[in-house]
Design goal:
single chain; 400 residues; alpha/beta; Nucleotidyltransferase, domain 5; six-stranded mixed sheet; 13 helices; 46% helix; 13% strand; globular; Gfd2/YDR514C-like_C
């Protein structure tokens, strides 16, 4: 696992210095706190420590904070109530999203004992998300992964743009994990769409080969609203994006409201685990997706792979919790998340590899064209320099 240095150090410190202060692996839930009176106080930061300069910061953001923690460790029994109140009232987005993801996918209480009761997500968020699925710890929600591509660089809506949507239903995921006869195979668990939205260019026709999971659909803005409304009808929806600012702005500009119960961001979830920001491509490499079959910067593909990345981030999170507690057992449905995220049909793999080869061929042709242009330009400069030198020699002879 890429998370090595400061996570392992923090785990060792948590046992070594437990009697001196409060150090907890990220993101821990203090079940001893009264959730009814201080619901957000049930969430602790990765590692609160007093650093030089009397500032309370978190150790997960920068590795050198850990070095400060090692060399300048001070107990936190006397920290100011105002500073603690700030962390309670302003929880980290990635931390909050991680807690919600654990609740939705049913692994928020891996070690389910009477001494460690399951916290109330309704008291933490102010509202509940989804009903319980019978015989499952997962919540009955529909994940809606959204990605927008083809904008003009300023977030404005051009004549046409692409909007990708991928859907994952926890009911279908639960049926697959339980081995139900009505369960869909892994290839059909994630439903993906690639919409080419025509704003004021009705004659535009999209390329058909780039979308790996079907054929693109050309729609108007009104038709897009209708299709998205059909996807969310009568269900609790959780919207998912990777760096969600652009998608939120476009949906707001198009006057499309998905009425989500919550919005997750894989960029924030990854930052919570590794402490750094990353692109979707690097995130997929980190969580184990084969680079050869990824065809990114296509809205439908990006939405699909973002949903797969969410499942693999959940797998990493659950495995990490089990590493922290030797008595914990990994829930049986976690392996289903990994199977769904990493499974691709033979046709999808072939299409992805073919697209990658075409991209490499185009890149080589472009580089060869650049070299030819550069050589012709160098030859022109040499001829001009030679002609100028001949003129100078002729002028010198006339002067003589």
């Amino acid at each position: 696992m890429p998370v090595l240095d400061f996570d392992r150090i923090a785990v060792k410190l948590s046992s070594r210095f437990a009697r001196h202060g409060r150090i907890n692996p990220w993101p821990s839930i203090d079940h001893s706190l009264d959730c009814s009176s201080r619901s957000r106080g049930a969430i602790r930061r990765f590692s609160l420590c007093r650093l030089p300069g009397s500032q309370i910061k978190t150790a997960r953001h920068k590795p050198h904070y850990i070095r400060h923690l090692i060399h300048h460790f001070q107990p936190l029994d006397d920290y100011e109530e105002s500073n603690m109140k700030f962390w309670i009232d302003h929880p980290d987005k990635g931390l909050k999203m991680t807690v919600v993801l654990r609740h939705l996918l049913g692994y928020d209480n891996i070690k389910n004992t009477a001494a460690s009761p399951k916290p109330s997500i309704a008291k933490f968020l102010g509202h509940d998300i989804g009903k319980g699925i019978p015989e499952s710890k997962m919540r009955d929600v529909r994940f809606l992964s959204i990605d927008v591509d083809g904008l003009d660089g300023h977030g404005r809506i051009p004549g046409h743009f692409s909007l990708g949507v991928s859907i994952l239903d926890t009911q279908t995921l639960h049926a697959l994990a339980r081995g139900s006869g009505t369960a869909k195979p892994e290839s059909r668990i994630i439903e993906s769409h690639h919409f080419v939205v025509r704003c004021w260019e009705p004659s535009y026709q999209p390329a058909k080969d780039k979308f790996l999971f079907g054929l693109p659909e050309t729609v108007s803005i009104h038709e897009l609203r209708v299709k998205l409304g059909e996807m969310i009808s009568h269900r609790d929806v959780v919207v998912l994006c990777h760096s969600s600012k652009t998608e939120s702005k476009i949906l707001r500009d198009l006057e499309i409201d998905l009425f989500p119960k919550y919005t997750l961001d894989t960029a924030e979830l990854y930052k919570m685990q590794d402490g750094t920001s990353t692109t979707l491509g690097n995130l997929l490499d980190t969580v184990g997706m084969l680079h050869a079959i990824k065809d990114l910067h296509v809205a439908g593909n990006d939405a699909n792979f973002t949903l797969r990345a969410l499942l693999l981030l959940a797998v990493r999170d659950a495995e990490y919790q089990c590493q922290l507690d030797a008595d914990s057992v990994l829930p049986y449905w976690i392996s289903t998340f990994e199977a769904v995220a990493l499974w691709l049909s033979e046709d999808e793999i072939k299409r992805g590899i073919r697209n990658r080869r075409e991209e490499r061929t185009k890149e080589r042709e472009w580089q060869m064209e650049l070299r030819q242009q550069s050589r012709s330009q160098e030859g022109r400069f040499e001829r001009e320099d030679k002609g100028g030198a001949d003129e100078d020699e002729g002028g010198a002879d006339e002067a003589v």
